[in-house]
Q: What sequence folds into this?
């Protein structure tokens, strides 16, 4: 195919966290001679600025919630979107989040443009699975793990329009050769081993669990520093850092825990880890886990969601039953007390990342979906 395909991405976040980083990585690795990305987001912010640096055309588009009360506003936004699609000769719409998905499906049907929905999350509690309910609307659904794709299975098989493409990371940026020495010096870590968690501070990430497990570990191995790398991602999380620091104080962690706040470049901090902990429940396809494995770090995480697709328990890390805080502490201690095992698991983690999580592989599989639709 000689003509470039124009791909319009509908997204609902203005900051940069895991999902936005995945999109930026995708754009960095798409074949620029064949694909040209466009982006619609609610407003300006770090995500929009990073997109523009990559040459992505940006449209500010605030998509209202899908309900009868917003009907007039929905029709207005739909009209703007259709005009933009026609003006820029968009060939494919790639949409994220339910409200964007419904709008993209309507715009696609009217404009005669195929639509891809991207599913990156598992369903919690009583949440309505709108994608499953309206699965007849998109032309393709990309899931970032088999755990997500299972939402759409009938008789043990997902429809052919549902594709699983694991998240990818830049294996050159995240690699075992990165030196964490400067970070250790800045943290005054000394000879202490570092158990770190790489995360934003939203409540769903459950940093409290990490802080509750830390004293159990310290009782049997006092020479440990616990590192929380990440900050508040949205306005709704303001004050979250102070809340977590109070929990750490009540747990008696004192100088054994450090909160770094948001860090644009986490590679040096990740390089300083001896063990990467992951405490979020029912994560679909954790970038923190993949980045840790690419950096050659063994992972201790929950045995649920998409984690078993990433971590080969006993080989590249250890998976424990959710909410088994004693089991989590024991797994961390096992690796802290066995240098050879910890190093071996880190090496195996890197090898698995090279096999499965290269961002170039992720981009190539996404390109194939676009070419099918074109």
A:
């Amino acid at each position: 195919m000689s003509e470039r395909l124009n791909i319009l991405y509908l997204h609902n976040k203005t900051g940069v966290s895991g999902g936005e980083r995945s999109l930026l990585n995708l754009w960095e690795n798409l074949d620029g001679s064949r694909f040209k990305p466009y982006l619609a987001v609610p407003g300006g912010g770090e995500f929009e600025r990073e997109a523009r640096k990559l040459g992505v055309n940006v449209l500010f588009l605030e998509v209202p919630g899908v309900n009868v009360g917003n009907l007039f506003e929905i029709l207005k936004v739909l009209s703007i979107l259709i005009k933009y699609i026609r003006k820029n000769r968009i060939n494919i719409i790639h949409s994220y989040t339910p409200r964007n998905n419904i709008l993209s499906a309507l715009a696609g049907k009217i404009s005669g443009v195929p639509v891809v929905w991207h599913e990156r999350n598992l369903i919690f509690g009583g949440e309505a699975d709108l994608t499953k309910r309206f699965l007849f609307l998109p032309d393709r659904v990309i899931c970032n793990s088999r755990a997500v794709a299972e939402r759409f299975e009938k008789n043990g098989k997902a429809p052919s329009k549902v594709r699983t493409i694991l998240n990818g990371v830049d294996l050159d940026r995240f690699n075992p050769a990165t030196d964490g020495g400067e970070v250790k010096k800045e943290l005054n870590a000394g000879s202490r081993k570092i158990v770190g968690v790489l995360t934003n501070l939203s409540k769903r990430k459950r940093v409290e669990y990490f802080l509750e497990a830390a004293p159990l570990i310290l009782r049997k191995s006092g020479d440990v520093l616990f590192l929380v790398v990440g900050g508040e991602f949205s306005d709704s999380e303001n004050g979250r850092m102070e809340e977590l620091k109070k929990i750490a104080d009540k747990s008696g962690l004192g100088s054994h825990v450090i909160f770094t706040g948001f860090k644009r470049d986490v590679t040096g901090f990740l390089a300083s880890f001896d063990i990467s902990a992951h405490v979020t429940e029912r994560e679909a396809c954790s970038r923190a886990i993949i980045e840790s494995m690419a950096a050659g770090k063994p992972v201790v995480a929950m045995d649920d969601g998409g984690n078993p697709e990433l971590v080969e328990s006993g080989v590249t890390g250890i998976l424990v039953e959710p909410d088994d805080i004693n089991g989590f502490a024991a797994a961390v201690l096992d690796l802290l007390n066995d240098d050879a095992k910890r190093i071996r698991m880190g090496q195996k983690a890197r090898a698995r990342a090279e096999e499965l999580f290269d961002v170039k592989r992720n981009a190539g599989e996404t390109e194939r979906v676009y070419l099918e639709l074109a």
